[in-house]
């Protein structure tokens, strides 16, 4: 596991703590899609929708639910559509 | 090898910082509030949190990563006496027990290892943290021959240490996120 992956895992754990304490603004579905996108991306690269969709955490999620969560995450600023590429690529807004 | 060096430096530095907070800031406040509590049983022992999170993230590698930090803290209090058998056994308890407990619960079918396809559970880490604390405090108190009152103080200190370290990290990540995500 790379250093970045460890930071991602720690961030996921803290997101779960926020959720458990009722401090998080994301629903469970949105949080899972955000987890999946975080896992699939590296520091500065964008990630394709299909790759997020194939992630184990969201694999059982229905297509409409997944895309609603994706849209909501973009609306809330957690994900950003990649500007310099074709549609269907997202940047995860990670701590700088 | 380079990765292990980075892990060891980071984990030991966090352990030293957490120990400094526990002994230089929390302990004086605690002693003025609860003078009846003797010894070095901190009621907010943040280093326990560092041990648990390091063991969760790194597995057995955490034992190596924690060793310099734990040894320095023991040496700070005991000087060359750190190499006395009872202190070395306490050092080994501190570095080995967290990873051993995570491995044991995995063997028993409760795998909490961080993986990209898995959702981490904070509550599960807290439960294992408590288990690590029980095993560590029994072994440490056996080495030092402390009173039963200190067993309880160690357990309370470890639990709140892990909880508050998670809380601090949670707010640090929230602050980073809110910087990265423009609101409103």
Written overview of the protein:
The complex is a heterodimer of chains A (96) and B (184). Chain A has 96 residues and is mostly helical. In chain A, 53% of the residues lie in helices and 9% in strands. Chain A has helices spanning 3-20, 28-40, 49-54, 63-76; strands at 47-48, 79-81, 89-92. In chain A, β2 and β3 (89-92) form a beta hairpin. The longest helix of chain A has 18 residues, at 3-20. The two termini of chain A are 20 Å apart. Chain B has one domain (2-180): Arp2/3 complex 21 kDa subunit ARPC3, CATH 1.10.1760. In chain B, α2 packs across α4 (85-107) and α4 packs antiparallel against α5 (122-144). The longest helix of chain B is centred in the last third of the chain and has 33 residues, at 148-180. The A-B interface holds A 1, 3, 5-6, 8-18, 20, 23, 32, 35, 39, 55-57, 76-78, 93-96 and B 3, 6, 53, 56-58, 114, 116-123, 125, 166-167, 169-170, 173-174, 176-177, 179-183.
Terminal-residue CA separation of chain A: 20 Å
Average pLDDT score of chain B: 88
Give the CATH topology of chain A.
Arc Repressor Mutant, subunit A
Using the alpha-carbon principal axes, give the shape of chain A. Answer: globular
Kindly state the number of beta strands of chain B. 0
Q: Which fold name corresponds to the CATH topology of chain B? A: Arp2/3 complex 21 kDa subunit ARPC3
CATH class of chain A: Mainly Alpha
CATH architecture of chain A: Orthogonal Bundle
Name of the CATH class of chain B? Mainly Alpha
How many beta-strand runs of chain A? 3
Largest interface summary: A-B, 30 and 29 residues
| Strand order across the largest sheet of chain A | 1-3-2
User: How big is the Rg of chain A?
Assistant: 13 Å
Q: Biggest sheet of chain B: strands, sense, closure?
A: none
Structural class of chain B: mainly alpha
Poorly predicted regions of chain B are none
- Please work out how many helical segments of chain A DSSP would assign: 4
What is the annotated CATH architecture of chain B? Answer: Orthogonal Bundle
Count of alpha/pi helices of chain B: 6
Low-confidence runs of at least 5 consecutive residues of chain A: none
Q: What percentage of the residues of chain B does DSSP assign to strands (E)? A: under 5%
